[in-house]
Structures are given as structure tokens and as C-alpha cells.
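Q: Hi! Curious about what RING finger protein 121 isoform X2 looks like structurally. Here's the sequence.
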Amino acid sequence: MSSCQVLRYYFYQVDMSDLSPEEQWRVEHARMHAKHRGHEAMHAEMVLILIATLVVAQLLLVQWKQRHPRSYNMVTLFQMWVVPLYFTVKLHWWRFLVIWILFSAVTAFVTFRATRKPLVQTTPRLVYKWFLLIYKISYATGIVGYMAVMFTLFGLNLLFKIKPEDAMDFGISLLFYGLYYGVLERDFAEMCADYMASTIGFYSESGMPTKHLSDSVCAVCGQQIFVDVSEEGIIENTYRLSCNHVFHEFCIRGWCIVGKKQTCPYCKEKVDLKRMFSNPWERPHVMYGQLLDWLRYLVAWQPVIIGLVQGINYILGLE
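A: Let's find out. The predicted structure is below.
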């Protein structure tokens, strides 16, 4: 199709049903350029508004997080939980909606158990087992999704006779599922860890704990660390931090990796994660957790900031 034909289809609004998809795209492209011709100054103003809004929003969010971390974390968690639901219903992503409902139902039950007083003895392990399971599933899902995307970029999907668009959609979907639920479970786990540790009494977000920690008690779950032969209990590995406080290895790993805590549950001395995860195969879990912490800003606040920018542009009459 020549340039003259493209202009004819644009100006006379001719029916494009007889055109190929590529020709239809060219006509739409021409229409878009004609619509926005001469708006360079307006577009520059919109870019400046976007940059200014991002800077101001970032400064406000940092101040909010430093001054009121509890309310910031709660609002962020609520947005991460609800904002994708809006787009899911709007775009009819029913598969995501089913998984979201299942995750929300089980997580709501686990969170309910974690916030009860008095705390049932088996609740801390139930909480950490559930969120550790979701963490491992999200980690594996994200890795598979990333590999699928890379295989598609290198053309390896053709070896299996898979179309590039199908392979890329599969990889991006898995990558999204892994990162989204990885971010969400870590925030829920952090909230549950705070509630449970405060209820047990060996941990306080601010101030001194309400109980004195004995050498034979794990401050994370509140259970005995060492069990006598005649007593009923669970025998498992223990881990001693640099502050000399001893915990169940499962509990302290759940506290640090799943619950996003990097301090001792009792004395708040910083935990050396490199020493705790000395095995090179375990180091990626730490890096993956840091990646999820960075992505939570994009998932929770980026849609809000973009919506605010669009609102400002609408009020100022910018298109």
C-alpha cells in the first residue's frame, strides 16, 4: 500500500475490513501521527509532569515509610492485594482470578490464626510452613518463566514447534505469577510474624520485650528448643546467632527470609545472612527476596502514580 492510499483511508474513513492486518496497522499509525501533529510542546509538558510527579511521590513515600512504617506497610499490602483484582475483572483474566481467590482464602485463614490471642502452639509453624511453601512455588515459577522468555528470545522455542508469541506469553505469565505472589506472601508473612512474636512476648517492635528469654526456648515459636527423651515434642536442628541466642533453624530461617526480618527476634541485633546461608545454593534465596522487596513498589504504587499523572493531564486539558 502506498502513502497516498494510506492517507486516502485516513481522510475519507474508508472501510478497512478488506485490508491486511499490517495495512490496518499502518493506517492506524498514520491516524495517530496526524492527530498528534503539532503537539510537541504539549507532550514535553506531559513528560515534565510525569517526572515531577514521580520525584515528589517517591519523596513522600520515603518520608511516610520512615515516620509511620506500620501504616505504610498496611496500605501497601492492601493495594498489592486489591489493585491487580481490578485489572483482572476488567480484562477477564479468569485464571488469575481463580488462583487469587484460592490464595486469598488460605492466607486469610492463616492470618486469622496468627492474630488470635492466646496464640495456639502450632500456629507459628503453620504460618511459616504456608508462606514458605508459597515462597518456594513463586521462586520456582519465576525461574521457569524467566527461562521460557530467554529461550524464546534465542529462538529455542522453534525446536519444540511452539509459536514465538505463545512461548513469550507463557513465560511472561509465569514470571508475573511468581513475582506477584512472591511479593504478596512476604508482606503477609511479615505482618503475621510481627503479630505472633508480639503475642508470644519475646519480641517488641519498639521498646523491651514483655518476657525474659530462656536459653531453652525459641523466641520465634515460643516452644522448647531441647526436648528430653521423656517429654513430648519435636527434635530438630538449632541455630545460634552472633548474639548467642539460639533458635530452631526452621524458625529463624522463616523469620529472616519469609518474614523479612534481619534482626534477632529478642535483642534486635543484626543477623548476618551471609553466615546463615553459607551454602552457595541458598544465596539466590536472599537475592530473590531483595528483588521482591524492590518490586513491591512497582506493584503497589506505580499504578497509583500513573493514575495521578493521568488525572493531572486531564485537569490541564493535555492529551
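A: A fun detail: Strands lie at 238-240, 246-248.
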